[in-house]
Amino acid sequence: MSSTLPRDTPGLIEAGGHAYPAVLLPRISADPGRAVRADDVAADVDRELEAAGASHVDALREAGATLWDGPVLVYERVADGAVICRRSSYFRVLATSAAVGAELAVTGADAPLSELPLRRRAIRLAGGDPIASGRGRAAAVGLNIAVVAVGGGGRSALIGRRSRSMAAMPGMWSFVAGNIEPTDGPRPLASALGRELTEEMPAISVADARELVSGARVHGACFSLGRLGPSLLASTRIDATADDLGRLDAEEFDETRVIDLDDPESCWTGMSPGSLVPSSAALLSELIADD
């Protein structure tokens, strides 16, 4: 991975005896209302990069992946404790940021840039530092949120194996996750957290989600070195047991697992970098440390 990133790239997230292909972004506000700011401007996506990555969208379609196109917020930069976003579309995300990640997955993390034309162009468009700038590509601003159940005296949470029909990270373990959208309003992260909780946790009502988000904390943001895009990391607590939370949405998750946050060794069992979404690895690490 080092040959594809700037020299001063911070270290990989290391947890559970593994190194995950993501880094933490510095100085993100812990307040969900302040951690993301959306500029009402369309992202300037490079047409050549988008055209070159169109084959990735075609491959997903041919594989039967669940695809939809709609507005999303994409990464611009970090400033004043917030991830700054602009407007784009999900198909542009797939054809640029996701295609860059897929190219690396196929070629291998140690491949030189000469063998990674999409990544090479994306890095050049970002002025040599894709962590500092989202210029030229559409990298969706994602989110991960864990609902930590504390009703049984300990701390536990639900994590799920994503459906193999998903376009992004199929078959990998993840907390509740999604993308932030332009329609999420003036407090985009807070709105998106509530939406994803009600969509992916059937036991959570709209009223429950509103209360959970009001008490949520942003642990920071991590930047995927594969797709070259950020995800916000959040958690909230509920006075209930993990059993009370049921299971994650069966359309998006093939399997649900309860993890005991007070037993770190068991949390990381079966969670290798090839099995656990990098942003969820970052959030799990934060949750275990947040005792």
- The helical percent reads 25-40%
What is the total number of structural domains? 2
Strand proportion, as a percent range, falls in 25-35%
Mean pLDDT: 92
CATH superfamily of the largest domain: Nucleoside Triphosphate Pyrophosphohydrolase
Coarse morphology: globular
Structural class: alpha+beta
Separation, N- and C-terminal Cα atoms = 32 Å
- Regions with little confidence, pLDDT below 50 for 5+ residues: none
CATH architecture classification of the largest domain: Alpha-Beta Complex
Largest beta sheet: strand ordering? 3-11-12-7-10
Number of strands: 13
Q: What is the radius of gyration computed over CA atoms, rounded to a whole number of angstroms?
A: 18 Å
**In CATH's first tier, which class of the largest domain applies?**
Alpha Beta
Question: How would you sum up the major sheet?
Answer: 5 strands, mixed
The number of helical elements comes to 8
If you consult CATH, what is the topology of the largest domain? Answer: Nucleoside Triphosphate Pyrophosphohydrolase
Please trace the helix and strand order, writing H or E for each element: EEEEHHEEHHEEEEHHEEEHH
Describe the protein's architecture and organization.
The structure is a single chain. This protein has 291 residues and is α+β, with helices and mostly antiparallel strands. It has two domains: 30-125, no CATH class; 142-289, Nucleoside Triphosphate Pyrophosphohydrolase (Alpha-Beta Complex), CATH 3.90.79.10. The protein is 27% helix and 28% strand. It is globular. The two termini are 32 Å apart.
